[in-house]
Design brief:
Helix content: 25-40%
Strand content: 15-25%
Number of strands: 23
Number of helices: 14
Largest sheet: 8 strands, antiparallel
């Protein structure tokens, strides 16, 4: 069941009114002036005094999102003041408090007593633990949903700013927390149940619309941002780390080459549907990605020979941004100790066979790769490293380094894997654009040339019906020559520029996919080392994210 924003607003207002009506009668039964229940905040003050709770509760109520937790405590304590106990009443108060409280308040059979006069409830050991766990779960859920959440970095796309094994604190309040869009879910599981491989951890019986509470700031250029992976609206469960749409394109290309003239349209899609378990996911249950926001709504973006330009000006490069380099030596190995001194970890050393397999000719500098492959036959101590500029200079200065070559895809090479996967836009990872990032309210020309850039926005992110007949584009069954964006969009890139699945490959990030701002690293573990080998990277802990 999809609940509209208007319906949700009506429900929220009705809940406040129902609670206020309940408080009118509760105040009356407690011997207080009943019309004081109509005064915002003052009614909370009186409610707290009726329940004999410390005044600190009132000030905690004023803290965004903590206020909801205090409200639940007030509801639970009020139910107890009506001499109701047991988990049945607790559950009713938690889910239907705005209905259950007025029912108790207006019932002539129910009397309100002071909590201090109630006999102390003797709880068993199990009951005490259950109460403590319920309290902790509710508190942790509110904190995780609305304030701050913790993530671990799984890939090297943000090296060397963020390393694989960094445990990261992400602020939800910075950009404003989102209302959970699929609220019925297993606590603290993202999209898959713990201890299972593919079992879904949420139910889609109720779906809330996108709504974001006010934040402390807006997303700015160069912020490190956590967001829901836009291409992750559909996944092949056995291949979750890969874009489903690129998977379909890859199989489609393979089948075209295999079948020749016998190829039928959509063979790649049919093949993926048969070979894998394919699953659609709502926005808030899509994979969480972390990248650097390099362009915000309205910005013009371009990459020239690996250098990013925003609004026709060279962008400020992250301090520890990395590119891939071929390092030629005189036959003497660059050993592990030297690599460690240069702050190179396992993720920065690219195995030649994996590199060549993952980088077909269509996206690499032919001459460099061919020369590198040939050199490996005679000198096994040539390397491909992902290096910061500082590390590249130190490698270059080593006595056994003969030559160092920065990999860069020439602008003459078209990579059909980069967004928008259309031959009219003959771009690659190192030479991309120019492209303007869509802004809410901005109007763009729509035709068969521009449609590849905006089709997914119009059809998927903003929910319009779209079709093309000949040279005419129809939006919601009407011919369209322009389109006005409903949301703002962002462009995300990894600091490890040559090893990042980012906006260059799947396009824009809608504002409703933004989760939060990366704030600091509180723990850093080296996954390649055991606990007695220095697994904890002490120097990388408790550092801010820049």
């Amino acid at each position: 069941m999809i609940i509209s924003l208007a319906s949700l607003t009506v429900f929220f207002i009705a809940s406040i009114l129902a609670t206020t009506i309940g408080l009118w009668k509760i105040f009356e039964k407690a011997g207080k002036t009943n019309w004081h229940s109509l005064i915002p905040l003052y009614n909370i003050w009186i409610w707290i005094k009726i329940l004999e709770k410390p005044i600190s509760w009132f000030f905690l109520f004023l803290i965004p999102f903590f206020g909801f937790f205090i409200y639940l405590l007030l509801v639970w304590e009020t139910i107890r003041a009506f001499k109701k106990s047991g988990y049945k009443h607790l559950l009713l108060g938690t889910i239907f408090g705005f209905v259950y409280l007025p029912m108790l308040a207006f019932s002539k059979k129910e009397t309100l007593v002071k909590l201090s006069t109630l006999p102390k409830i003797k709880k068993t050991f199990v009951q005490e633990w259950v109460d403590a766990i319920l309290f902790a779960v509710v508190a942790a859920y509110i904190i995780r949903t609305f304030l701050i959440e913790f993530y671990v970095i799984p890939t090297s796309s943000m090296e060397g700013t963020l390393m694989v094994g960094d445990y990261l604190a992400v602020s939800k309040v910075s950009y404003g927390p989102k209302l959970p869009q699929t609220p019925i879910a297993f606590p603290f599981a993202h999209h898959t149940l713990p201890l299972t491989q593919y079992t879904q951890s949420y139910l889609e019986w109720i779906k809330f619309p996108y709504f974001r509470f006010p934040g402390l700031e807006t997303v700015k250029n160069n912020d490190v941002v956590v967001f829901n992976y836009p291409d992750g609206d559909t996944v092949a469960l056995e291949m979750q780390t890969q874009s489903y749409y690129q998977l379909v394109r890859d199989y489609d290309q393979m089948l075209k080459e295999q079948n020749g003239t016998a190829y039928q349209p959509n063979e790649g899609w049919n093949y993926v549907q048969q070979k894998y378990k394919v699953k659609a996911r709502p926005v808030d249950k899509r994979e969480n990605y972390i990248k650097r926001c390099v362009a915000i709504p309205g910005d013009k973006l371009q990459v020239k020979n690996g250098q990013l330009f925003v609004n026709d000006k060279q962008a400020v490069n992250p301090i520890r941004m990395q590119y891939q380099y071929i390092v030629y030596t005189n036959g003497i190995e660059i050993g592990k100790k030297v690599q460690k001194k240069l702050n190179l970890n396992e993720e920065d050393v690219i195995r030649p066979d994996i590199f060549i397999r993952n980088n077909p000719e269509t996206m690499t500098d032919f001459n460099s790769i061919v020369a590198y492959a040939d050199s490996m036959k005679t000198n096994p101590f040539n390397y491909i490293f992902a290096l910061t500029n500082e590390a590249a200079q130190k490698i270059k200065a080593l006595a056994n380094t003969v030559k160092i070559v920065k990999l860069c895809v020439p602008d003459t090479i078209y990579d059909d894997r980069v967004f928008p996967q259309n031959s009219n836009y003959r771009w690659n990872r190192d030479n991309y654009g120019p492209i303007v990032i869509p802004q809410a309210g901005a109007n763009v020309k729509i035709d068969t040339l521009t449609l590849p850039l905006y089709r997914r926005i119009i059809e998927v992110y903003e929910g319009n019906k779209l079709r093309v007949e000949g040279a005419t584009v129809f939006i919601n069954d009407k011919p369209a020559t322009s389109y006005t964006f409903k949301m703002g969009y962002y462009w995300m890139m990894g600091d490890n520029r040559h090893n990042s699945a980012d906006s260059r490959y799947w396009g824009f990030v809608p504002e409703d996919h933004i989760v939060g701002k990366a704030v600091f690293v509180w723990l850093s573990l080296d996954k390649y080392k055991g606990w007695f080998e220095g697994k904890i990277r002490w120097s990388k802990m408790f550092r801010g994210v820049k």
